[in-house]
Amino acid sequence: MSSAPFNSADFRRACGLFATGVAVLTTRAADGAPHGITINSFTSLSLVPPLAMVAIARNCTFIEHFESSGFFAVNILREEQVDLSIRFAQLPEGRFNGLRWAPAKTGSPILEEVLGWIDCVTEEVIGVGDHRVLIGRVTGVHTGHGRPLLFFRGRYARLDETV
Ligand SMILES: Cc1cc2nc3c(=O)[nH]c(=O)nc-3n(C[C@H](O)[C@H](O)[C@H](O)COP(=O)(O)O)c2cc1C
């Protein structure tokens, strides 16, 4: 099937049809300060060995911390945690102010009450287009109970029903 010419907005709209979960990707700076950004680019990559990948925009303010720390955690959000997603996508500073978190084995911040988390040691960083892809070896996981926050057509959504 042939496709019409398309621009960035068309590409973004098409990608928006691929419904995803929402997570807060966290790491620490050299001084121990926690940093985090909202992402939906998380993908499980390999089961043996356990590998996960995320993509971070090159122009992200915190990209250096994610690259130099050598570790990151994917904090998977619950459907009640839209406010956390907005905070970690939009607040210019103080994103962790007033939040409770604890370090995982790598040191990655784990936010209290997330649906689940995946802690990783960074194995590879690849520059691709306008993003940097981080591939991590999974060193710890936690699976909670509850329902995930979703992102679909550029909007937050909930699971309607399981088919
Ligand atoms: C639902 C959602 C998913 C996002 N996914 C990503 C992502 O996968 N990678 C990324 O670099 N930014 C993603 N962003 C944007 C970042 O959260 C945002 O640009 C970052 O927190 C901005 O930090 P900065 O302005 O300080 O650079 C996403 C935002 C939202 C709301």
How does this structure look, described?
With 163 residues, this protein is mostly beta strands. It has one domain: Pnp Oxidase, Chain A (Roll), CATH 2.30.110. The protein is 15% helix and 42% strand. A seven-stranded antiparallel β-sheet has the order 3-2-6-9-10-5-4. Strands 1-11-12 form a three-stranded antiparallel β-sheet, with no helix packed on it. A two-stranded antiparallel sheet has the order 7-8. Strand 2 and strand 3 (34-39) form a beta hairpin. The longest helix has 9 residues, at 82-90. The two termini are 29 Å apart. The mean pLDDT is 97. Bound molecules: flavin mononucleotide.
Helix content: 10-25%
Helical run tally: 3
Molecules bound to protein: flavin mononucleotide
Strand line-up across the major sheet: 3-2-6-9-10-5-4
Biggest sheet architecture: 7 strands, antiparallel
Rg, alpha carbons:
16 Å
Features:
163 residues; mainly beta; Pnp Oxidase, Chain A; 7-stranded antiparallel β-sheet; 3-stranded antiparallel β-sheet; 3 helices; binds flavin mononucleotide
